[in-house]
Amino acid sequence: MPTPPEFPLRVFYDGSCSVCAAEMEAYMGKEHGGRLEFVDIGAPTFDPTPYGISLDDFMYQMHAIDRSGRVYRGVEAFWAIWQAFPASTLYGLLGTLVTLSGVNLVARLAYRTFARFRKYLPRREACEGGSCRIGQRKR
Question: pTM for the whole thing?
Fold first, then answer.
């Protein structure tokens, strides 16, 4: 796994994706001491330009950016998020487990599969104002 994040960690998620939003709400509801900041990339007002990452890339996989500008993607983004929680919690344990090579490989394959099929999941809200931009570009 990469270098641990410098907090705060900005977490980018698609709020119109029911699974994604539910996962982020779980993190928001846990005590993270302000180490996590959440940005809904599905919001019509979201502008990816300042981050140097295309909207298609943001929509394709989870991103997190730490205070120093280090970018974490996919499984690494989840690993970075889990670093905001004490090692004694479930998230701390998951953060340790996902660093094991076999577990990491399975996690990356599972995440890649989820990312490809995410656009077919039920949407959380009506797609108005351009918030349903997922899957515009094929990979």
Answer: 0.85
